[in-house]
Amino acid sequence: MSDGPLNGEISLVTGSGAGNGRAIAKKLAQMGSKVVVNDIDKGKAESVGEEIEKAGGQALVTVGDATKQEEVKRVAKEAKDEYGRVDILVNNVGLFEAIKFTDMELEDWRKYMALNLDSMYLYTYEFLSGMIDREHGKIVNISSDAGKSGYPELVAYSAAKHGVVGFTRALAKEVASDGINVNAVCPGYIKTDMHWAFLDQWAEAAGKTSEEIEEEAIAGIPLGEFGKPEYVAEVVGFLVSPATEWMSGQAVNISGGLETH
After folding, report:
1. In sequence order, what DSSP letters do the residues of 197-249 get, joined into one string?
2. Strand runs (DSSP E) across the chain, as ranges?
3. Was domain 10-190+228-254 assigned CATH 3.40.50.720?
4. Active site residue 157
5. Using CA atoms, how far apart are residues 14 and 31, in angstroms rounded to an integer?
6. Domain segments of the chain: what residues?
7. For 61, which of 49, 90, 174, 200 could close a Cys bridge (C-beta 3.0–4.6 Å)?
8. Which residue among the candidates 123, 157, 189, 231 is catalytic per the annotation?
9. Sign, Cα dihedral of 181, 186, 191, 196
């Protein structure tokens, strides 16, 4: 793996114990980067770290809650102690659940904002200064097609993911002269455990079966099927590669044609 386009780079992927994060961490390792695997679930994080190392890569496993500043600081210290720096930050942590706005308590709203938006501030804050000092770094924020178009039963999530796109565009302009590229990825329906759980919740809220909801969702996707985490990982790999030195402030859709702006 050391001969890849990311040879010598150090990456940290938040929420990389499962789903898109797992696929992204493995992809960056395949591209030659040493990867800091990070998740709140120790077992899942260790499993991904083992997968990377069995494939010939290098991984540091870290555990922490991405919404708590003291834990983010501890993870950042572990990464810096082990590798000295982080060149590539992928802010992947997030959560979506079907919930009607009128059923949402303030605690629910704050939970979705913390996981989907605050976590990006906390991790970016820990590593951006070092990137600026070195005049080198790439940040990829995982938003959603809900960050381009709002969806019912996903009001808080949609608001937070719109915030991720705004955060990406503004920060990209702020640090462009410092040699830092900041981009976002906006996945649509991707086959993860969270995706299947959401479809079940959506079906319950709509009074339909999960099969009916799945058919409706796929019918709205021009390419006619749900995506795979590996599709997201490929786009992230491109965004952090040398091929995108002149690309920043973008929010790239990967939704089977569902979202086109």
Report:
1. HHHHHHHHHHTS-HHHHHHHHHHT-TT-S-B-HHHHHHHHHHHTSGGGTT--S
2. 10-13, 34-39, 59-63, 88-91, 137-142, 180-187, 251-254
3. yes
4. yes
5. 18
6. 10-190+228-254
7. 49
8. 157
9. positive
